[in-house]
Design a protein that fits this description.
alpha/beta, binds adenosine-5'-diphosphate, globular, single chain, 244 residues, 10 strands, Rossmann fold, binds magnesium ion, four-stranded antiparallel β-sheet
Length: 244
């Protein structure tokens, strides 16, 4: 790989990123990279700082220190509406669908930054092809959907912005086992179709199975970063996160 390719390959670069809520340091000097085409997971216990890290990457909480670059441009201290335009979409913890709007309206909201009507219509078709249940329920209020369907809707809505980087916060949380499998299959498919993904998950086993690389966070710090396969066979990780 020559230098220009190497530069292009790096999509997201966070350096010494910090997030604090008053006196609580939730994220402490985290270095994190996501390269174009990768599926990278971030695992760690409840309260480790995963959500805070994702939120700071997309400008929903301010960084108290450090930098974020995306395709070479600085995103540090940029507001979230501007970060969305750079091509970063977040599927938040707890899905965040608009429950009183219909499924179709939720998906259209995902495309609010775009103006290419024909392409939006075609992307809507693609989301409906990917998630036939959403198509069947297109005119239903999102609040009437099951948890799994709402997760599909949240992912579909994020895809409607045609993201360069998709941030997923605990997509399998609270779902029945079959639906968890389905969501992970969907994540793998989206990745194989070329969307770069940063996946936060408490289900470390499945997250490491689908990911190329992974980071482990403990008390706000990244304590391990490696190929997903290496993390999955790391005795420390196995004991702490894979229940062995
Ligand atoms: N809005 C907030 N105000 C104050 N403290 C917060 C807030 N959000 C998260 N925290 C604290 O920051 C730490 C990290 O939380 P979070 O990023 O949600 O971790 P995770 O997603 O890994 O469970 C926890 O100690 C949590 O209590
Ligand atoms: Mg969280």
């Amino acid at each position: 790989m020559d230098l220009s390719e190497a530069l292009l390959a790096s999509l997201l670069e966070a350096r010494k990123l910090c997030v604090a809520y008053g006196g609580v340091k939730a994220v402490k000097r985290v270095d994190l990279d996501v390269n174009a085409g990768e599926l990278v997971c971030l695992i760690g216990a409840n309260g480790a700082g995963k959500t805070s890290l994702l939120k700071s990457l997309c400008g929903m909480v301010p960084a108290s220190g450090g930098t974020v670059h995306f395709r070479g441009a600085s995103l540090t201290h940029k507001p979230s509406h501007e970060i969305v335009r750079h091509g970063i979409a977040l599927v938040p913890e707890g899905r965040g669908v608009f429950s009183r709007m219909t499924v179709k309206e939720n998906l259209e909201m995902g495309a609010h930054i775009r103006h290419d009507r024909a392409a939006i219509a075609s992307d809507l078709d693609s989301v409906f092809t990917r998630f036939p249940r959403l198509k069947e329920r297109a005119a239903q209020k999102a609040g009437t959907l099951s948890g799994g369907e709402q997760q599909m809707l949240a992912i579909g809505r994020a895809l409607m912005s045609r993201p360069q980087l998709l941030l997923l916060d605990e997509p399998s949380m609270g779902l029945a086992p079959l639906m968890v499998q389905k969501i992970f299959e969907t994540i793998r498919e989206i990745s194989q179709q070329g969307v770069t993904i940063l996946l936060v998950e408490q289900n470390a086993k499945l997250a490491l199975e689908v990911s190329h690389r992974g980071y482990v966070m403990e008390s706000g710090e990244v304590t391990l970063a490696d190929e997903a396969r290496a993390l999955a066979s790391n005795p420390e990780v196995r004991r702490a996160y894979l229940g062995e």
